[in-house]
Each structure stands twice: as structure tokens, then as C-alpha cells.
């Protein structure tokens, strides 16, 4: 089944890369007159919405800004496509304005007990599928935790191709309580078309450190097939103390339109500092 997913993703990437018109990823769609935060350190602020425009300033991660207007111009860097935005922001006692590329902004952000958690797409990397002997591009996301604007920790994880960046969410899951874990963060991306994978990344925060759990992937195509993964945490129905469960389910129809289902589960033990797979 994984081979089918890999072949499908490579096919989708090739189809969309052949198109000339560039569309912005949905996760970088921000409304006018709404607050936002900078994700990428030293984000360049330009005099107009284009890459060769004069640089008039740069902003650090966690800087609060106000979206004034979404521009029509779209810039694609690797597997990230985003509009330019006219913004305003404070520096000292001055209110300034300029233009920024939307890919440098947070997908989501949260504040909890003096910590700022930022979620965004960091870069695109080149990867090789050895089974099909093809190259493809893969987005890398990250979560940063800051206190008083100083970086405490940052962790990176993959988020698929640009087609998986139509929707994005970021939350602090208060009901997922593992031993000695301060917060459980959940960062997600997903596409809007059939056959486009979505990814859920859970991150634990403990003693000023971020710990990534195994990434979850969900994908499907109408009634033809699907693959779903989810965690069962303590305080969830069926949760086990000091452990969490990975549940997987797959369905694929054969040439007679009969459903073939496969289910599996894994138990991960948590000792208060790290997790490992139960044998």
C-alpha cells in the first residue's frame, strides 16, 4: 500500500509541476485587517510586492504584525507558494508599513504560560525515491518555542508536497496528558483533492524541550481506498496510563468492488522523558 501512495504522490507532483500558472497554498491565505506573526527569522520587508524591490527592513520570528491587504502577486519557492501581503508593524514608538511574502508568516501560533509556540513551513528539500528512481521535493515544517522572544527550542518534521498545504491547524491538546508532559501540541496540514495526503504531527513539550511523536498520515480517494492513522492518548477513550496507542486502518476495493480492510495497532510506552515501542 505504501508503494501505491509513493507512486501516486510522485504522479501528482509531476502533473502539477507541469502547469504554468502558480497558485498560492491555502495555508498562506490570510485575511485583511487581521493580526499575524512572523515565522522566519530576518524576514525581509520590501518597498513593493516583488523580490527585486528595495529591502526596507527585516523582522524576527514572533514579531506581531497586522495584515493590511493581500496582493495578487504570488511567489513560489520550492514547494511553497504564497501571496505577497502589505503589512504594518510597530518598531519602538513608530508604526511602519511594507510588503512581505506570505511563506514567511506563521501557519498558527499559541501562547501558554509565557511561552510562544510558532508553527510554519521552514524550507523545501530535495529527496529521492529509490524504489521508483525519481527525485521529488518535500516541505519541512517546524515548531519553535520562544520565551521573551528568545528561542528555547525548535523541532523539524516533513509535511509532504505543496498539494498537502491547502489547510493547516495548530492547537494545544489539553486532554492528552502523558506523565510529566507540560503541553501536547498538534500541527496538521492537508490537501483538498482526493489522493492528497494529510499529516498530523504531535509534539510534546517538557523541560523546555520539544519531542516529536511518530507522524500520522491520512489519505483516501472516494470509495476506492483509504489509509488512516490516529493516536489514542491517556484520557481518551481506551487510553492507557503512561502510554499511547497508534491505530491504523486501510481499505482498498478489488476489481469486483469488494472492500478489503486491514487494521493494526502499536503501543508506545512513555517513561516521563522518552517513548519507545512496546515489543
Automatic annotation (TrEMBL):
Residues 1-18 form the signal peptide. Keywords: Signal. InterPro entries: SH3-like_bac-type. Residues 44-105 form the SH3b domain. This is SH3 domain-containing protein. It comes from Chryseobacterium gilvum.
Amino acid at each position: 500500500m505504501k508503494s501505491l501512495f509513493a507512486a501516486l504522490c510522485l504522479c501528482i507532483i509531476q502533473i502539477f509541476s507541469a502547469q504554468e500558472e502558480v497558485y498560492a497554498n491555502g495555508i498562506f491565505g490570510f485575511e485583511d485587517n487581521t493580526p499575524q506573526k512572523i515565522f522566519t527569522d530576518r524576514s525581509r520587508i520590501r518597498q513593493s510586492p516583488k523580490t527585486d524591490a528595495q529591502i526596507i527592513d527585516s523582522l524576527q520570528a514572533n514579531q506581531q504584525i497586522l495584515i493590511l491587504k493581500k496582493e495578487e502577486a504570488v511567489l513560489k519557492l520550492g514547494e511553497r507558494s504564497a501571496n505577497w501581503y502589505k503589512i504594518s508593524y510597530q518598531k519602538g514608538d513608530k508604526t511602519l508599513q511594507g510588503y512581505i511574502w506570505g511563506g514567511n508568516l506563521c501557519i498558527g501560533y499559541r501562547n501558554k504560560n509565557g511561552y510562544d509556540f510558532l508553527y510554519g513551513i521552514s524550507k523545501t528539500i530535495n529527496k529521492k525515491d529509490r524504489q521508483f528512481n525519481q527525485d521529488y521535493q518535500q516541505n519541512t515544517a517546524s515548531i519553535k518555542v520562544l520565551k521573551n522572544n528568545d528561542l528555547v527550542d525548535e523541532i523539524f518534521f516533513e509535511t509532504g508536497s505543496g498539494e498537502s498545504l491547502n489547510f493547516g491547524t495548530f492547537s494545544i491538546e489539553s486532554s492528552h496528558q502523558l506523565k510529566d508532559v507540560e503541553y501536547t501540541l498538534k500541527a496538521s496540514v492537508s490537501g483538498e483533492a482526493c489522493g492528497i495526503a494529510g499529516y498530523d504531527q504531535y509534539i510534546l513539550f517538557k523541560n523546555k524541550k520539544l519531542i516529536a511523536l511518530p507522524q500520522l498520515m491520512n489519505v483516501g480517494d472516494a470509495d476506492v481506498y483509504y489509509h488512516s492513522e490516529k493516536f489514542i492518548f491517556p484520557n481518551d477513550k481506551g487510553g492507557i496510563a503512561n502510554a499511547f496507542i497508534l491505530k491504523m486502518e486501510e481499505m482498498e476495493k478489488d476489481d469486483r468492488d469488494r472492500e478489503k480492510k486491514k487494521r493494526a495497532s502499536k503501543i508506545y510506552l512513555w517513561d516521563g522523558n522518552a517513548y519507545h515501542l512496546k515489543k
